[in-house]
Amino acid sequence: MPRWVLLPFVLALTLLPPAFALTSFTGLVVEVLDGDTIEVLQRGKAVRISLNGIDCPEKGQPYGKAAKRFTSEMTLGKPVTVEVKHLEKDGLLIADVILPGGSVLNQELVGAGLAWRSQKFSKSPVLAALEQEARKAKRGLWADPNPVAPWCWRKRQKGRAC
Fold first, then answer.
1. Which end of the chain is more exposed for a tag (fewer CB within 10 A), N or C?
2. How far is CA 65 from CA 13, 61, 109, 126, in A?
3. Is the pLDDT of residue 50 over 50?
4. In this structure, is residue 15 part of a structural domain?
């Protein structure tokens, strides 16, 4: 194949931001935006990560602050491994986050009753089982007799029905 044909592909790959080209990387958590969104330092740049397959209560919801506090305690200032599952159009990475001890932050949040498993985006039997267990034990948001899922809460904030 002629070099001039390959050159655009090689240039495109080298111009991609580092996180896009990787399936996993390790970095230091430098910010926790909410329960399911963190920023991880990679190659000197903060990369925004949304946790795969889960949805935590929003800041204005019951348990929203607790979810953020939990994520902060587990991650802030600590090295984590980010296993990228998907890249959104806006550059947001959807990922599983592996904690220093080897546990998965996404699973820890669901098990603690501080996140819903996203039925729309997650087919994980592990997350489904953890959510069911948290519901039965009435942990976290499941202690509330009628918890409002964050996707419904966001719609209601915009005046739409869930």
1. N
2. 39, 8, 13, 25
3. yes
4. no
**CATH code of 60's domain:** 2.40.50.90
Query: Looking at residue 22, what is its pLDDT?
Result: 56
Measured between alpha carbons, how far is 27 from 77 in angstroms, rounded to an integer? 10
Cα gap 106→44, rounded to integer Å = 25
Q: For residue 53, report the phi and psi dihedrals to the nearest 5 degrees.
A: 80, 5
Residue 5 lies in a domain: no
Residue 66 belongs to domain spanning: 22-157
Structure tokens at 77: 């200032």
Specify the number of domains making up the chain. 1
Q: Apex CA 92: angle with CA 90 and CA 96, to 5°? A: 155
State pLDDT tens for residues 62-79.
999 999 999 999 999 999
